[in-house]
Amino acid sequence: MSDATLPETASIAVQLARVQARIAAAVVAAGRPADCVQLVAVSKTYPASDVLQALHTGQRHFGENRVQEAAQKFPALRDTYPGIRLHIIGGLQTNKAADAVRVADVIETLDRPKLLDALSLAADRGGRCPELLVQVNVGDESQKAGVSRADADGFIRICVARMGGRVTGLMCIPPAADDPGPHFAWLASCAAHHGLLELSMGMSADFEAAIQYGATHVRVGSAIFGARVPPL
Ligand SMILES: *Cc1c(COP(=O)(O)O)cnc(C)c1O
Q: How far is CA 19 from the centre of its chain?
């Protein structure tokens, strides 16, 4: 039977299992300890029914780009599926900070002082603070979010001084045209320099390379849920 004739449930479960197997193989190849890499299933643009199928396989970490979409899909699932960890991985406007703090377990896109102010204020008011990752624009691409390489050290220091242990790591999206390896290596050394343990790097196209360079979280969407229309 070809994949095309399998029911949707089988398809997402099968793809998840394939990605998990590739992660496990990359971890072994890198000589890293088992279970050191968390798969974040990126469910942006896919319906809650697809998230449910992933939940049924035991998947618990999910990534969403937009706070509003995350708020529509996830709160209703939390009671039934304990252990859900929702990561906000898209650029965050300051006026969405309060909603993000309410809905997210991890915000991976802290990249500027104004957003730090807004998240800090929202966390104080809401009485909860998600885990925070600083996004670095490793390719210094004008269209991409993230603090520049040049400003990363200073900004990370400010974030840690302000939010303490809630700042746990760094995140990046290398330029699509580049070999991602040197970008991943740079992010890993920057995190080590600051004593930060979490590294969110690697997507469908390059997660195995990211694992080789020390990723602790890989953000994988299309390899699990299929092609997005329109791509985002
Ligand atoms: C969409 C997205 C992903 C997942 O991309 P795929 O290529 O579908 O795996 C990962 N990280 C971020 C920040 C994204 O926006």
A: 16
How do residues 14-35 score in pLDDT, each as one tens digit?
A: 999 999 999 999 999 999 999 9
| 31 contacts 62 by C-beta, under 8 angstroms | no
CA distance 112 to 156: 10
- Residue 203 CA to ligand 1 center (angstroms) comes to 6
Question: Which atom of ligand 1 is nearest to 89's Cα?
Answer: 13
Model-level pTM? 0.94
The beta-strand segments (E) located in the chain are 38-42, 61-64, 85-88, 106-110, 131-137, 147-148, 167-172, 198-200, 217-220
| 65 CA closest ligand 1 atom index | 15
CB of 42 sitting under 6 A from ligand 1:
yes
C-beta separation of 54 from 84 below 8 A: no
Ligand 1 centroid, distance to 42 Cα (angstroms): 6
DSSP bridge pairs for 38: 217
Is 65 near ligand 1, meaning CB less than 6 Å away? yes
Cα gap 58→56, rounded to integer Å: 5
